[in-house]
Amino acid sequence: MANETTPNGTPPGPTHTLGMGLPARAEFKPPQAPNLTADPVAGAETVTLNIDGEDVSVRPGTNVLEAAKLVGKDICHFCYHTGLSIAASCRQCLVQIEKMPKLQPSCQVAVRDGMVVHTNSDEVLTARRSLLEFTLKNHPIDCPICDKAGECTLQRHYMDHDHQPTRVDVAKIRKAKHKDIGREIVLDAERCILCSRCVRFCEEVPGTSELTMTFRGDHQEIDIHPGHRLDNPYSLNTVDVCPVGALTDKDFRFAIRTWQLSKTDTTCQGCGTGCAVELHTRHEQAYRVVPREDAEVNGHWMCDEGRRTYKSLDPSKRIMHATVDGEQVELQDAVTAAAEALTGKKVAVVFSATATNEANLAFAELADVLDAERFVLGRPMGPGDDILRDTDKNANSAGAHAAAGDVSKHEGELALELAGRAYEAVIILDGTGELSEVSVGGLRGIASVCLADHETSLASACKIVLPAASWAEILGSTTNRQGRLRMLQPAFRAEGDRTHRADLVRSLLMALGGRKVPTARERTAALAEEHGHRELLARSQQQPTAHPTLLRWAHTRG
Amino acid sequence: MATKSSIAETLAQTYDAKGRQAGEIALSPSMQAFADLAERLPTDEVIVNMGPSHPAMHGTVRVVLRIDGETITDADVQVGYLHRGFEKECESSAWQQIFPYVDRLNYVSPMLNNTGFAMAVEKLLGIGSQVPERAEYIRVIAGELARVADHLTCVTASLAELGGLTAFFYGNRAREHIWELLEDLSGARLTHSYARIGGVAWDLTADFEDKTKDKVAKVRGFISDIRKLVERNRIFLDRMEGIGAISADDAISYGMTGPCLRATGVDYDVRRAHPYSVYDHFDFDVVVADGGDNLARYLVRMEEMEQSLQIVEQALVQIPPGAVIIDDPIIALPSKREVYNSIEGMIAHFKLIMDGIRVPPGEAYAYTEGGNGELGFYVVSDGTGRPYKCRCRPPSFYTTAAMRQLIVGANIADVVPIFGSLNMIGGECDR
Question: Do B350 and B411 reside in the same domain of the chain?
Fold first, then answer.
């Protein structure tokens, strides 16, 4: 990508002091939605119009469709999207506006003082039904095999506005059924209703314009430009904006039916941006990550890389029980063994940029008790850009460095020192971090303790492994690159002995003679209070913490 | 309750044929020695458990009896052994998915439950008056047949427990005829799930009318045979007459409805008092008996079966042609032809099954005459495809509540016919 930056090539100075080992980065700006919401801004001018007999004052410059949302009217539409430019191509949102001769697309008409709008007159209803009938004319009978079924906008609109039997007795027009158009995406051109949301997305957000409309009339379809593939790092957002199942995610294709999933509002763990996401799970298995709207951070979008972070939750790789020298032991025995192993030695304490604030704060207390050398370890740098992706692939670098305090040595030095047997003992907060093979080998000779949620080379090299709960099993927080506190919520209960890292460190501190060490939940509550994060504070005071919502009844998508 | 001093008196009455009183006769020396011994014996009240799995308790219910000899001095009737969380289960099921669950409430007459639940949802949807008349007639026919099956099961199982096994076999054969009819209609012998919101699943079979006429005659024959078998039988009358009696006032205060209430002389039948469906189109009697005892309950049920069969016959004559389910694509499933051949039908089918019928927010209570009395469904919708709350008023819960009063003072052996005639159905009572 053209606008990608390398860690070293970033021009302006840092906005946050994140400690050592982190390069200065460009100031992050959340993506701006082109369409204004209708909520009036306090103190600013408003425009008053009448929608279905109800007067409503809205912000000037917004459109009728947004204004109608304020009076609880969700005008049926396909092509309009708050985060994209207006095409007014689907004609589904036609409304009647007094003194205008014809029906008007409500998404495209700007609000004016004194405008009188009818969204449910006979004329409007007839137009709406006719257009839906027209849209359905060539739509394949795919619901039973379509990934979008259950969260499909077309299905919803048919049930809400059309519900008439077919009058068509001619064959449907056939188009490409499964066309591989990109790294992550398969196109089913038949299902496409030509709303052009995906075309506009590629033009406006990543700016890559891979998609276009080809042919005319009944034969019109979405396609990639010759010689190009839909390979931009944000391509999967086209699947989200697609109102039907025309664009499908290769990874999610035929994996599960959408209404069987439960959603949990949480934060992406893929990089320092910390996009607001929904984690979709069924029982203890995660199936996908989709973006959640957050105007302050990620707008409507997220990157493809972030969507794959759920793969680290693979149930077959989870560490369920504590091990000492490869032998499974009771958790408490392992904690005691770890406390003994760390006492009275020269210890290196390795904070983690991939673990939560709570865990890192508890770890800081441990470092004080052990009077140890501090390091911060994380995943290596990766590609970034000035849209959403951060070059720092750790969700909590800011939080980890804030907790660790003054870190005098770079993580590279840790590798060298471990390889050189500079320490008698080491404790690592997260087994996800990357170290060189030589330094991993250096762990074998010394007392090494690792808190790990899934099997990694680092975890398997350590003598004592404590089973930690993954980010999908805990209530906690991370701090993103803007310095915002981001919320993590449990999507399912931790199995086996898996425990919140902060609570594992707490047990360790207690074993070392600590008293009145706060629990993970108490730390979360304190952090939420400090940052004024009301939702997180409320969650930290609730029992139980897992509140996944079954998508079947939620009706939140599509 | 027999006191110690009366043992000699009891013995004397038992063994003296001339009707003389104690004191007037002398017991034989050995008999007198036995009476003396018995009076010196220490006696105590005993706690006996009947159920939850007792061969003569044909529901899963536990009755803890405090007995003095054969007499029950106190009882604790414990229900709940068949609790399956019906009401909670409904809250995570789409509206139409609940029909199989209501089948399992009173599993002896599932069609009556089907109708009751469908009516509650129809009331909430505001489509009560739009259900096609043919569908209402089919619901009445199937429901009244189910009522006959329900009463047959109750009555003849009770008779079997009193030793009249022949009557039980006759009853089962009669019920078999009814089940064959319901199987023709719905495809299932016991759990029909045949009603739908807005009508019924499909139309009557082509030969249903002829078959029903034939079977009704056969069922009548069996009922008359059963009556001839038992009604002049001394054992039957001794066990039924005056046993387990309850007054009308008490029955009402317990919330009893149905045959058990009508057996106390109260003329209350939901079909007549608050006519629903097409029950006002039929000529039938509300059967009432006096006494409130086992025999009265038996007689009410026997006569009600005849009334139900008459309703079925009238309905078969009156039934109009036409559709059997409401013509509204957001309530009724489209035909299979449309589902497989048009995207419109496919979407409608898909969304109705997956998201459920969108019932507007609100609450409704619909009540019908079930096999055991007033069967009510109180449903609350929050606008999604599933109930926010689905409460069932199970008639046998209220009749079972009165059981303690009925059995205290009776003999242990009376528990079985009293319990049988109250017709507690575990699936319904415990939900």
Answer: yes
A281, two tokens: 């799970």
Same domain flag for B26 and B131: no
One-letter identity of residue A190:
E
Contact A165 B345 (CB under 8 A): yes
Domain boundaries, chain A: 47-136, 137-255, 319-473+494-533
The pairing of beta strand A276-282 with beta strand A262-267: antiparallel
- Does the residue B76 lie in any domain? no
Instruction: Assess whether B90 and B144 both reside in one domain.
Output: yes
**In sequence order, what are the residues at sequence separation of 6 or more whose Cβ sits closer than 8 angstroms to the Cβ of residue A81?**
A197, A200, A241, A300
Q: Identify the pLDDT of residue A3.
A: 44
Give the pLDDT band (50/70/90) at residue B312: very high
Digit-coded pLDDT (tens) for A410-446: 777 777 777 777 888 889 898 887 777 767 777 777 8
On whether both B11 and B125 belong to a single domain, the answer is: no
Whether A303 shows a pLDDT value over 80: the answer reads: yes
Q: How far is A173 from chain B (nearest CA, A)?
A: 13
Using pLDDT thresholds of 50, 70 and 90, give the confidence band for residue B56. Answer: low
Contact B343 A140 (CB under 8 A): yes
Assess whether B378 and B234 both reside in one domain.
yes
Percentage of residues in chain A having pLDDT higher than 90: 54
Domain that holds residue B18: 1-43
Q: What residue of A is the nearest CA neighbor of B347?
A: A155
Q: Per-residue pLDDT averaged across A143-171, rounded?
A: 89
Q: Does B351 fall in a domain?
A: yes
Assign residue B153 the CATH number of its domain: 1.10.645.10
Q: What is the mean pLDDT of residues B382-405?
A: 90
* pLDDT tens-digit series, residues B115-163: 999 999 999 998 888 899 999 999 999 999 999 999 999 999 889 888 8
| Check: complex ipTM more than 0.85 | no
Tell me how far apart the alpha carbons of residues A320 and B241 are, in angstroms, rounded to a whole number.
Answer: 68
Identify the band that residue A15 occupies on the pLDDT scale cut at 50, 70 and 90: very low
Q: How many domains does chain B fold into? A: 2
Q: Do A553 and B342 touch (CB under 8 A)?
A: no
Under 8 Å between Cβ of B359 and B381: yes
In a domain, B52, yes or no: no
Select the residue of B338, B344, B384 nearest A158 (Cβ to Cβ).
B344
Provide the terminal-to-terminal Cα distance of chain A, rounded to the nearest Å. Answer: 31
Query: From the CB of residue B99, how many other CB atoms can be counted at a distance below 10 Å?
Result: 22
Contact yes or no for A555 and B355 at CB 8 A: yes
Instruction: Identify the CA nearest to A190 among candidates A208, A171, A204.
Output: A171
Q: Taking CB atoms and an 8 Å cutoff, what residues of chain A touch B348?
A: 158-159, 163
- pLDDT value, residue B384: 83
Domain A47-136 belongs to what architecture?
Roll (3.10)
Whether the pLDDT of residue B242 is over 50: the answer is yes
- Please report whether residue B66 resides in a domain: no
What is the arrangement of strands in the sheet containing B62-68, beginning at the earlier edge strand? B46-50, B62-68, B71-78
Contacts of B344 in chain A (CB under 8 A): 136, 158, 162-166
Domain A137-255 in this protein, CATH class: alpha beta
Q: In the structure encoding, which two tokens stand for residue B360, read together?
A: 């507007």
A502: Cβ contacts below 8 Å, ≥ 6 apart: A356, A358, A359, A361, A362, A476, A519, A520, A523
pLDDT, mean over chain A: 87
CATH number of A319-473+494-533: 3.40.50.740
The answer to whether B346 contacts A168, with C-beta atoms less than 8 Å apart, is no
Mutate to test the interface with B, among A142, A143, A162 (most CBs of B within 10 A): A143
- pTM for the whole thing? 0.82
Same CATH fold assignment for domains A47-136 and A137-255: no
Tens of pLDDT, residues B58-86 = 668 888 988 887 888 889 988 888 899 89
Is residue A256 less than 8 Å (CB to CB) from chain B?
no
Shared-domain flag, residues B14 and B108: no
